[in-house]
Amino acid sequence: MRLLIIEDDRDAADYIVRAFREVGHMADHAVDGKEGLALALDGDYDVLIVDRMLPKRDGLSVIGTLREKGVQTPVLILSALGQVDDRVKGLRAGGDDYLPKPYSFSELLARVEALGRRRGGRGDEMVYRVGDLELDRLSHRVMRGKEEILLQPREFRLLEYLMKHAGQVVTRTMLLENVWDYHFDPQTNVIDVHISRLRSKIDKGFAQPLLHTVRGAGYMIRDGVR
To answer: Residue 80 to residues 99, 102, 192: CA-CA distances in angstroms?
Structure first.
């Protein structure tokens, strides 16, 4: 899943972002309500995690504006305000779930994944399929035919991004920005190495290759030969 964390406590945000990435999710961070609102309006996120007390624009105002503009991305509210009245206000403002601080990451992860499943029920893809290759974004399970393929978190993110754009050329810049969170070219062969590892896992031993290199352009995952 692709997540947006709107949290002004940088230490807390760094911890959450790192923890989500370690389990294979993509996570962006906004440091205040104004930046968070702009990213939430422009980005294609599966779940938003919003701190209630934010500088420049408070969390409930951000959520209210999103709902007014028709953005229905599920929102989990994080807040030190944990009384019943506080939770009611958060849910009535448009939040889908409310988790008081302090909290455990395991509970946060479970709640976010539950919101992702709920959104999946509204028509957004939680499972990607290309030919006989299937990737489940919530369970982090990859199957090709009847064989389960075990991937490292970065390999999973790489495959998820390629399958999301199946049939399209995915450039190195797109992969650096969306899989590695780099906004510059580190001038290394990190992408080539991961593509090679991924190809050996999803294509080796199968009659039909799915992951292709498009010379001078990038990479493409597709079913069938062109």
So the answer is: 9, 7, 44
Q: Rounded to two decimals, what is the model's pTM?
A: 0.61
Helix, strand, or coil (residue 161): helix
* Sheet with 127-130: strands ordered across: 127-130, 133-136, 141-144, 147-149
Q: What is the CATH number of domain 127-221?
A: 1.10.10.10
Range 2-120 classified under CATH 1.20.5.320? no
Q: How far apart are CA 72 and CA 119, in angstroms?
A: 9
More confident of the two residues 72 and 197: 197
Cα–chain-centroid distance for residue 147?
25
Using the predicted structure, report yes or no on whether residue 219 has a pLDDT greater than 90. Answer: yes
Tell me, what's the pLDDT at 124?
A: 52
Q: Could you state, in order of their start, the residue ranges of all structural domains in the chain?
A: 2-120, 127-221
Which residues, 6+ apart, have CB-to-CB distance to 196 below 8 Å?
none
**pLDDT tens digits, one per residue of 109-161:** 888 988 887 765 444 567 899 999 999 987 889 999 999 999 998 899 899 99
Report how far residue 46's alpha carbon sits from residue 130's, in angstroms, rounded to the nearest whole number: 21
CA 47 to chain CA mean position, Å: 8
Q: How high is the pLDDT of residue 125?
A: 67
Assess contact for 12 and 20: CB atoms under 8 A: no
Closest to 10 measured CA to CA, from 26, 27, 32:
32
